[in-house]
Design a protein that fits this description.
This protein is of the alpha/beta class. The protein contains 17 helices and 17 strands. The chain folds into three domains: 15-83, Winged helix-like DNA-binding domain superfamily/Winged helix DNA-binding domain (Arc Repressor Mutant, subunit A), CATH 1.10.10.10; 107-112 and 358-465, Alpha-Beta Complex (Aspartate Aminotransferase, domain 1), CATH 3.90.1150.10; 119-353, Type I PLP-dependent aspartate aminotransferase-like (Major domain) (Aspartate Aminotransferase, domain 2). Helix 1 (15-29) packs across helix 3 (52-64), helix 7 (174-186) crosses helix 8 (201-209) and helix 15 (355-377) packs parallel to helix 17 (444-459).
């Protein structure tokens, strides 16, 4: 609070005590509201004509009185007054207890899988049908890929003006297995793989496990930056670029058509393959044309049912450029043992019967209702959301850092994910965001409880220092 000056004339005793008393008095009167920042030591000393040491001692006194919290180099903030602490005694840290726990058990706000909207009964019914009609689907290994599975994949990935060839479609154990299988097929030890600077982290870690080198590409509020992509392709020569083109995880950006065309131009110029992770994109009927439409000769298109139907099925598909399907299929079989026969048959029947589309429509409605809850609870704070998408990208207000915010939330049994989880290696800059998952097994009341805790943390910036051990 740069305009605040203490009134010292009516106080007696040592100067630093008088200053501490003045601070306490102004906190009680509201002149120094909760969350406001006290002036830097040197500035206040100059303004009131005392030494820096006097101000430091005064700040130390009010800290001992439990009125402020702070850290060297970041400032001193006013805590919420005791009269406003209508909370439980559960401590956020060893310093105080300003917040209630959201729930006795963990509230997992780090899941983005499709919520339960009645699909469990459908899946149970189909499983029973399979067991009765084709017992070998339960008892035997997969010997070949049925055409019906490929047809289900084609229907699932098809768009208004695009439908892939059956020969280029492979069923997979979800999108992650597809991504790893493609990377294993087209790259070797030491090869470079380019990623958006914030992306789905498991693919990056799997690449490192396989001995590949990761390169990060700068992004904007429109997703992957075409100029940065051109520079990386020209200077570092990656074999393939992994791109989340629609509803990037975690930033929620979607690359516009103009930028997609520029990216394709660079990929062709430098002979770089594209691996498009469209796991969330299936939720967007209005997305720009896919990279597989724009550059089918070099694009691997990956999707799954995890975010739109049921993550427990662990079913997905990859559409390969012509000539790659057999190689990717062999890699997938060696990595996973092949797609589970019964599970893939369930997914196929859901898609071909139209039930998967019905489930996805219900999931979309549920997602939209949950996003509305988030928008109401976090009104006034900056975040990116879309009613179709099962997560929110929240910018933290000063002085919160992602690590301290996640630690504070975790102390109240709420789990969210900090931006560092999604970084492709170390960076020289901070990304003051957290990702909030709003679906999975999270019931509506638990979502409300979790959002309430997050809101109270955001409203009390002094707590950003209370997690310091």
């Amino acid at each position: 609070m740069t305009n605040w000056l203490p009134e010292l004339s009516d106080n007696k005793g040592p100067l630093y005590v008088r200053l501490a008393d003045a601070i306490e008095r102004d906190i009680s009167s509201g002149a120094l509201p909760a969350g406001s920042k006290l002036p830097p030591h040197r500035n206040l000393a100059f303004d009131i004509g005392v030494t820096v040491g006097t101000v430091s001692r005064a700040y130390g006194v009010v800290r001992e009185r439990g009125l402020v919290a702070g850290e060297v180099g970041r400032g001193t903030y006013i805590k919420s007054p005791a009269a406003d602490r209508n909370f439980t005694s559960n401590n956020l840290s060893r310093y105080n207890g300003l917040l209630p726990k959201a729930h006795p058990e963990l509230t997992l706000m780090n899941s983005t899988s499709a919520p339960e909207v009645g699909q469990a009964k459908m899946i149970a019914r189909i499983f029973t049908e399979i067991a009765e009609e084709d017992p070998k689907a339960i008892s035997d290994y997969l010997r070949h890929i049925p055409d019906s599975w490929r047809e289900a994949g084609r229907r699932w990935v098809a768009r208004k003006n695009w439908s892939p060839s059956l020969a280029n479609i492979l069923p997979t154990q979800g999108s992650h297995a597809a991504l790893v299988s493609v990377l294993n097929t087209v790259t070797g030890t030491g090869d470079r793989i380019a990623f958006e600077e914030l992306t789905y982290p498991a693919t990056v870690r799997a690449s490192a496990l396989m001995g590949r080198r990761s390169i990060k590409i700068a992004t904007t509020d429109q997703g992957l930056d075409p100029e940065a992509f051109e520079h990386v392709c020209a200077q570092q020569h990656p074999k393939i670029a992994v791109i989340v083109s629609t509803f990037n995880n975690p930033t929620l950006t979607t690359i516009p058509l103009e930028n997609r065309l520029k990216i394709v131009e660079s990929a062709r110029r430098h002979n770089v393959l594209i691996l498009d992770d469209d796991t969330y994109g299936v939720l967007d009927d209005d997305a720009p044309p896919l990279f597989s439409e724009l550059a089918p000769e070099r694009t691997f298109h990956v999707t799954s049912l995890s975010k739109s139907v049921a993550a427990g099925l662990r079913s997905g598909f990859v559409v390969c450029p012509t000539g790659y399907a057999t190689r990717v299929m062999n890699a997938h079989r060696l990595i996973t043992g092949s797609a589970p026969r019964a599970i893939m048959e369930i997914s196929t029947r859901l898609i071909l019967s139209g039930e998967a589309d019905q489930i996805m429509a219900k999931v979309a409605l549920d997602n939209a209702a949950r996003v509305e809850k988030v928008r109401a609870a976090l009104a006034g704070f900056e975040f990116r959301s879309d009613p179709r998408c099962p997560f929110v990208w929240l910018r933290l207000p000063e002085p919160w850092l992602p690590s301290t915010f996640c630690k504070a939330a975790r102390a109240q049994n709420v789990v969210v994910e900090e931006a560092d989880e999604f970084k492709v290696g170390q960076t020289e800059y901070a990304v003051p965001f957290v990702r909030i998952g709003i679906t999975g097994e999270l019931e509506a009341d638990r979502l409300d409880d979790g959002l309430n805790v997050l809101k109270q943390l955001l409203q009390q910036p002094a707590l950003a220092y209370d997690t310091i051990e």
